C-alpha cells in the first residue's frame, strides 16, 4: 500500500487518516502526514542518483523538522493520555519510544551521508504514521470521547 508517489500526492491524502476523536490531535496528525509526504518526495527524487550537497541540506532540514515535530506530537499525546489515565498508556508509549529510536538511527545515516535511497526509505515515515494513527491512536478515540474531549 501507498507505494506509488501519485497516491501520496493526491490532494485527499489526509482523508486516509482516521479521526481519532480529538481535534487538536487530528490537526497534528495531518501536519505529520504532510511532512511525511514531503520527505517521500525528496527521497524519491534521489533514487538512482548521487545526491548533491544541496540535496543533502534539503534532506537535513526536512528530517530534523520531522524529528522535532514527531517528538512534540508524541509528548502532547502522551501528556493527554497521562492526564486522563488512559489504560493503554504504557504500551502506547513504548511504540512511540521505539519509533523515536528508529528515527535517531535514520538521522545518523543521513548525518553520515550513508543512505540507500530506495522506494522503501521514502515511504518509511508515511507507512509507520498511517499504521500508527489508524490502528494504535484510533484505539483511544472512544476513551477520550467518554472523557468529554472533542
Ligand atoms: Fe498520534
Ligand atoms: Fe500515538
Draw up the topology in text.
Elements: H1 5-9, H2 23-45, H3 53-84, H4 89-111, H5 119-136, H6 141-146
Helix pairs in contact: 2-3, 2-5, 3-4
Bound molecules: fe (ii) ion (2 copies).
Overview of this structure, please?
The protein has 150 residues and is an all-alpha fold. The protein has a single domain (21-146), classed as Up-down Bundle (Four Helix Bundle (Hemerythrin (Met), subunit A)). The chain contains 6 helices and no strands. Helix 2 packs antiparallel against helix 3, helix 2 (23-45) packs antiparallel against helix 5 (119-136) and helix 3 (53-84) packs antiparallel against helix 4. The longest helix is centred in the middle third of the chain and has 32 residues, at 53-84. It starts with a helix and ends with a helix. Bound molecules: fe (ii) ion (2 copies).
Features:
Four Helix Bundle (Hemerythrin (Met), subunit A); mainly alpha; binds fe (ii) ion; 150 residues; 6 helices
Q: What is the number of independent domains?
A: 1
What is the H level of CATH, i.e. the homologous superfamily?
Hemerythrin-like
Instruction: Based on Cα principal axes, name the global outline.
Output: elongated
Structural class estimated from helices and strands: mainly alpha
- Count helical runs: 6
State the helicity in percent bands.
over 70%
Amino acid at each position: 500500500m501507498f507505494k506509488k508517489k501519485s497516491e501520496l500526492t493526491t490532494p485527499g491524502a489526509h482523508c486516509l487518516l482516521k479521526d481519532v476523536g480529538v481535534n487538536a490531535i487530528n490537526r497534528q496528525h495531518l501536519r505529520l502526514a504532510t511532512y511525511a509526504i514531503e520527505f517521500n518526495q525528496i527521497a524519491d527524487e534521489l533514487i538512482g542518483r548521487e545526491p548533491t550537497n544541496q540535496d543533502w541540506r534539503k534532506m537535513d532540514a526536512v528530517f530534523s523538522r520531522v524529528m522535532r515535530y514527531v517528538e512534540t506530537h508524541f509528548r502532547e499525546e502522551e501528556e493527554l493520555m497521562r492526564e486522563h489515565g488512559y489504560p493503554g498508556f504504557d504500551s502506547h508509549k513504548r511504540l512511540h519510544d521505539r519509533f523515536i529510536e528508529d528515527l535517531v538511527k535514520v538521522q545518523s545515516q543521513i548525518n553520515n551521508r550513508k543512505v540507500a535511497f530506495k522506494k522503501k526509505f521514502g515511504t518509511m515515515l508515511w507507512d509507520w504514521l498511517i499504521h500508527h494513527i489508524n490502528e494504535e491512536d484510533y484505539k483511544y478515540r472512544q476513551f477520550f470521547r467518554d472523557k468529554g474531549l472533542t
